[in-house]
Amino acid sequence: MNGIADLIDPMIAFRRDIHAHPELAFCEHRTAERVANMLRDAGLEVHEGIGGTGVVAVLRAGSGSRTLGLRADMDALPIDEMTGAPWRSTRPGCFHGCGHDGHTAMLLGAALALVKDPGLSGTLHFIFQPAEEGHGGARKMIEDGLFERFPCDRVYALHNWPALPAGQIATRPGPIMGAADKFRITLSGKGGHAALPHETPDTILAAASVVQQLNTIVARGVPPSANAVLSVTEIHGGHSHNVLPETVALGGTVRTFDPLVQDRIEERIRQILRGAEAAFEVQASLDYDRYYPATVNDPQAAADALAVAQTVADARLAPEPAATSEDFSFMLQARPGAYLWLGQGCGSDSPPLHNPRYDFNDDVLETGIRLHIALARHWLQD
């Protein structure tokens, strides 16, 4: 395994380079080009432009018939970075605030190590995916023929996890990440003078009532045994102290793990809006988008992954799923596999994901590389 140790410094340098040059969904041109060139220079078969800016490299070894996919995401977030790191983002309003730079570096390191010393028999696909952050890059790659062109009997992915101690690995059978829905509500009246509220439907008052009622749905409309989150995150309306606005817009998110609970929450939102229309004489419209399904691990794939992870580091069964979402869910709907968390926490004050002071912990990069290699060699045993 000396080859892995030799890769750590180059992969840290690579990670910091793409951190300094982050790219948003479907714009990962520089990142994808760097990845593709390094894979091609290593002697791998490389395919570009899959699902937009996706890259897949293929490693064939031995005579085995099994196939495996290992996936990493490449996109950044539309956030201004506040880390002050020497390798901080050079692009205002864009930075790797979720560690996808680290994910890309770990999978790239595993590919470079395995091409020199495969130790496996079968076909391994290294999948570098665009647009995970809310834009469904995994779905785009699948629609572009990912699994037809690059068959995978199983597929694995990992995500750094600040809540876990650095280097610790966790996963679980069944749901591990939530389904993500987003909603936008528009309440419309006719607008008018604030001193004459009896002449004008009050969209502000209607919005306040709707927000209060929305926050009762999980507590009173969902079984206590179910895991669900509903958060109102936006309110927009009004522009003057003496004008009742014609419209008020609300927005937010719903996270669930059970489609029946998901259905129940959407229906309760619609019921609340019908009530608001009657009570406040406004018109209510709802745009409800179920943009990511729940990430659900295949039980056997998760059990295998946990056993493999225990040969690499401290690995534990995750006690419960997270309400955050992940578009790897689309790949797990198409193929059996599992999603894993790799701890990167540096104590209780570690910045969380999507925080402007977050940065990937380079100390866990080697563990991630070794985990990818171990998963590949387990499924594609020589």
From TrEMBL:
For this protein, the parts annotated as crossing the membrane are none
Q: Which domain of life is it from?
A: Bacteria
Q: Which InterPro entries match?
A: Amidohydrolase, Bact_exopeptidase_dim_dom, Peptidase_M20, Peptidase_M20_dimer
SUPFAM superfamilies named among the record's database cross-references:
Bacterial exopeptidase dimerisation domain, Zn-dependent exopeptidases
Keyword Hydrolase in record = yes
Q: Which keywords has UniProt assigned to this entry? A: Hydrolase
Show which residues constitute the signal peptide: none
In this chain the Peptidase M20 dimerisation domain maps to 182-275
Q: Which Pfam families match?
A: M20_dimer (PF07687), Peptidase_M20 (PF01546)
Q: Which NCBIfam families match?
A: amidohydrolases (TIGR01891)
Protein name, UniProt field? M20 family metallopeptidase
**Source organism phylogeny:** Bacteria, Pseudomonadati, Pseudomonadota, Alphaproteobacteria, Sphingomonadales
